[in-house]
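[scheduler] slot 2 assigned
[scheduler] job type: sequence-to-structure, two independent chains
[scheduler] chain ordering preserved from manifest
[runner] begin chain α
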Amino acid sequence: MKQITLFFLFFLLLTGCKKELNISSKEQNKGIKLVKTSFLTLPDFDKQNYAEFLDNFIHNCKSTKSQKIYKRLCRDALHVRDPKRFLLENFTPYRISDKKGSSEGLLTAYYEAQIHASLQKSDRYKYPIYETPRDLVVVDLSTIYPELQYYRLRGRMQNNRIVPYYSRKEAKVHGLNASVLCYCDSKIERFFLEVQGSGKVILDDNSTMYIGYDNQNGHKYRSIGNYLVQKGEIPLADISLESIQKWLKDHPTRIDEVLNYNKSLIFFAKRDQGATGALGLQLRKKSSIAVDRKYIPLGNMLYLSSQLGNKKFNSVVFAQDTGGAIKGPLRVDLFLGSGDDALKIAGRVKSPLKLWLLVPNEKEAKK
């Protein structure tokens, strides 16, 4: 395996880094532009469920990151009688566009996966779901270089050098120095559990265990859907989570080939509650979104305009999660809850997106 020194990895990150979105300043940040607008311009703003918005805002304020963003507004929200007035009087919408000036992005969706598993390995339950490996090295340089606060170097030590951690295929060959949370009955379901980032595990004794993302092997996420399209296996117009799952089940001898195309490998930890995002909060259906936090810091409130299937979807949402495939200022993954209905819808969402950041007016007054 090619060895990479810590200095070289650091150099690659430093030369390619992007600044964090600074919502307390009017300066245009690298990679993102904010244009002040009004609530009147937001699609279907008057059709919002404002009581639901307020409840979601209070829930979002349970995070310390959100409290730093909204300060007194988190306290004031507990005593609000008119949610719409609270929103209109305390926030200003800013349309988000990329550095080229485009304000249209892409919306996809995800859900809480459900798998069947056992704490003991058997002929049926033989596919391990791992905790973070003990030999995974995560290097955080943010204390020295604050601009790198969202970058992490992941690898393993070999001859006093950090080398890339095992890819999905290599992990199977070399094995992992990691504890096993449970064993599931399908490598396909295990793979999509990784893609979703959290799941509900139904154990063979009928008990339930919740697990969620804990770490990753450092390899970039690669879409197996794109791989199947490139290979001519599934037409682009037909690609969806369901069509990919069906193809894999219909071609058992090629499952490893396709899954190994995505070198990224996700490690899990037990959770006390259902689907939990990177902010540490339990995700809420059609309210929680995954973003690229290099552009949109977690905890921020936004307004989203897109489509779910044939229906318009315009709503206040909250940045509470991240994802390996979520890259750029106008790239959002919407959480749709759990169950078969969520799975069917989530697998087909790929819609044009417009996004506004809802900035607290108290921040405006400090500019």
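[runner] end chain α
[runner] begin chain β
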Amino acid sequence: MTAVTPFAPRQPIADDPLDPGFGVYVHWPFCAAKCPYCDFNSHVRHQPVDQDRFVAAFLKEMETMRRLTGPRTVTSVFMGGGTPSLMRPSTVSAILSGIAGQWHMPDGIEITMEANPSSVEAERFRGYRAAGVNRVSLGVQALNDRDLKFLGRLHDVEDALKAIRLAREIFPRMSFDLIYARPNQTVAEWDAELKQAVSYAVDHLSLYQLTIEEGTPFYGLHKAGKLIVPDGEQSAVLYEATQEITAREGMPAYEVSNHARPGAESRHNLTYWRYGDYVGIGPGAHGRLSTGGAKIATATERHPETWLSRVEENGHGMVDQEVLELSEQADELLLMGLRLTEGVDLARWQALSGHDPDPAREQFLIDHGFLERLGNSRLRCTPAGMLILDAVVADLAC
């Protein structure tokens, strides 16, 4: 596999990068089954979830968050999980109405909901659309039944394609996820699968390398030598192939793991990567809020029923509310912004950090082909830098 070519200059992606926006994230923590690779805050319940009680708690926590944020205009909403498509459409409608009741929510903003193909029904999808959802993100993960079974998914390829077709029919925008660098996966196999995925996708794909997370079943198997994943060199080859194929097919990377046709980038996720403000509602949700001249990081109780009791007693489920120092904000801006092909706004980083990037460190990374300047205003990783993104950020932030 030849090295990927440098990022070509492109127009600013999805609105003004200097205005990151204000997002609302709502976490629905329940799943029908726990996937063996997943370390997200998701929980299986064998009895029906009291959705009305959880909705009341979501609305109550929103009231507390509104007092922290003051009046704001919402630019995007994202319902993640867990499996939000296990919610009734009436639950989704109540949540969106609650957000509109606390903040200004203009018509037509991006409202995304994650869905699993195994929980997709046409009637339910139409109900979500009627409630206001205009973008769906499907957790497909693979396009062959062997690997879907390995990944612990409850759907097969037929279910996935049915869900994709329904999403394309009902929602104005649609994305789906795939996981690659699976055991024994070859570049040729991934090339064929990815081309197939691009043919199904409307305008957006999220493509993640399989990572072995501590505390998951895959971690135990990997540690015992029973699960072998591609090594660093093979993973790099698969990553490079991913960039080449998606660029060739008109869906280039705009972030290290996300690909879109120009103008179809995820508005909500751009708010994260551009280090904007966002409210986190629900069990285990995180937020970043500018309030009273400071930026605070919030985190809520992860266990769903414990979160529920906390909200009912205290009006919120927050267990952490930390004021971030300017240097911490600068590090977070760098960590998030260098994931994007548009890179980091240097003036904003300098305003937070109080200094320019270390000239010697920056030049070292530039000379070795990991970093590049876009004029005097922006700094970004090269494709080679994206392969060692954590190391680049750590070196530059020192």
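[runner] end chain β
[qc] chain β: The longest helix spans residues 51-69.
[scheduler] slot 2 released
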